[in-house]
Amino acid sequence: MSKEAFEIGQVLGRGGYGTVYLARDGRTAELVAIKQFHNKGASVDRKALKEQAIWQGLDHPNIVRYKGSFLNEYHTLSLVVEYVDGWSLAEHLAQFPAFPENLVADITRQVLCGLEYLHANGVTHRDLKPANVLVSQGGHVKICDFGVSTSVDVRTLTQGAHLYGTPHYIAPEMVENRRPLTTSLDIWSLGCSVLELMTGRRPYHELSAMQTLFRMVQDRHPPIPPELSPAARDFLACCWVWDPRQRPSAAALKAHPFLNLTFQE
After folding, report:
1. Of the candidates 64, 235, 194, which has an alpha carbon nearest to the alpha carbon of residue 142?
2. Domain 3-82 has CATH 3.30.200.20
3. How high is the mean pLDDT of the chain?
4. What residues act catalytically?
């Protein structure tokens, strides 16, 4: 691939390491998304290569599809991925205060399908949150952004006692540097995301990032609102089991009664 093959359009999003653009593939007229990494030196180049190595090996309906890559005029890697014609869950939450439980259950089921696939292939996302889950206009849910992900098949660049992810969604074993870190990280983050979808507020929303990390370790899990249904409360409790070895897998959570709410009403 080359940059000349694409007509670059509007900005879809910006992050600490890059900017995502809408683009049209001049060869096929297909709309795609292009993640262009900021030109900030060798560390960003290594990060881009790692994300490419992880993303290009994935193929699942609930994962944004990798399509290719090219070097731009600054010799910086750009990733070409599937364009999802919709918003992230975070953007939806900015428009609506909260979602009904049956809708959250349907979204969660699709996210779990994507996580089950990732985990079966040795990939841990490590930054699962509403901003990294896209929903198409047809209601298809897709996980995106593998910038801090790890894979058993890709040499990691993020060793040591560092925090990766977003504070209000990080699992306690990451905070306490309990090794080894496993795919259970994503299950904890899923619970935090589900809570936010149902209530419009992320865990410890009233606290700063650092305060949140200390409170989470102290409390052992975020507060579970009593007004939620019994099934929803139990689902959150399952996601927030303190010991990651006892936390249920994505495959196991797909059988949780909370997901049956999808078919009610």
Report:
1. 64
2. yes
3. 91
4. 127
